[in-house]
Write a structure and sequence with these properties.
The structure is a single chain. The chain has six helices and seven strands, in the order αββββαβαααββα. With 244 residues, the protein is an alpha+beta fold. A hairpin with a 4-residue loop joins β6 and β7. α2 crosses α3. It is globular.
Length: 244
């Protein structure tokens, strides 16, 4: 499916659901970590790359503070008021949207309600950061509907807070940073301690191949939070020995 076909698919689905055309289209990519998996929350270095699988959101602004969000990929539609954002047990994927809205408002950003429709080409549960892409795309959408802009690094940090504080997964910065800062034809060497990176061009002729092992990856409900807590204990201990 090319870009024109994909936009037409989203637009048609949007019209069928909301009886109007979308005014805004935004997107954010998934990512692959080439080196340094699980070192992001240990404040180490990771080598990451945005990929050509991404998440799109088509939207139409509303005159009230209501957000309605649905997806072409998964069942369920959610509606919530920006003045009363609570965790949704019935359509849990929408909590990534809710979390971003919650964090942005806590930071003082004025948000506009919208009707939105999501379409993603990132396989779910594959370790390619479909959730981070949805978070970053949501942040970009709120920016597009407002008169303010966020620095891309700050956007990644706020989306990380949404996943940590609202969704409840204490992940590191790697996923959101990749989606917010990825550059075509380059990889990013990310220093997770300083949250700074260097873009390194991929040599001509070199291609990254991502293989589907059919093993679903799920951090929520796994031993990931326990392992992270153990790593944080060690990190705090050893930081006492690191020269300032």
């Amino acid at each position: 499916m090319n870009l024109v076909e994909r936009k037409a698919l989203l637009e048609q689905g949007f019209i069928e659901r909301y009886q109007t055309k979308p005014e805004v289209f935004v997107q954010a990519p998934g990512r692959v970590d080439l080196m340094g998996s699980h070192t992001d929350y240990n404040l180490g270095y990771v080598l990451i790359q945005a990929i050509d699988r991404n998440t799109w959101i088509a939207a139409h602004p509303r005159d009230d503070d209501i957000v309605r969000i649905a997806s072409l990929n998964v069942d369920g539609e959610a509606e919530f008021a920006l003045a009363n954002i609570i965790y949704d047990e019935e359509t849990p994927w929408t909590n990534y949207v809710r979390g971003v809205a919650d964090v942005l408002q806590k930071e003082g950003y004025q948000l506009t309600g919208f009707d939105g429709l999501v379409h993603s080409t990132i396989p779910f549960g594959s370790g390619l950061s479909s959730s981070a892409a949805l978070e970053v795309a949501t942040a970009v959408l709120f920016e597009a509907l407002a008169d303010w802009k966020i620095d891309p690094v700050q956007r990644a940090i706020l989306c990380l807070r949404a996943e940590n504080e609202f969704v409840g997964l204490n992940c590191g910065i790697m996923d959101q940073y990749s989606s917010a800062m990825g550059e075509e034809g380059s990889v990013l060497l990310l220093d997770c301690r300083s949250v700074t990176s260097e873009a390194k061009p991929v040599a001509p002729g070199v291609q990254v191949m991502i293989c589907d092992t059919r093993a679903e990856r799920a951090l929520t409900g796994s031993e990931y939070p326990e392992r992270r807590a153990q790593c944080e204990e060690v990190l705090v201990f050893w930081e006492g020995f690191i020269p300032k």
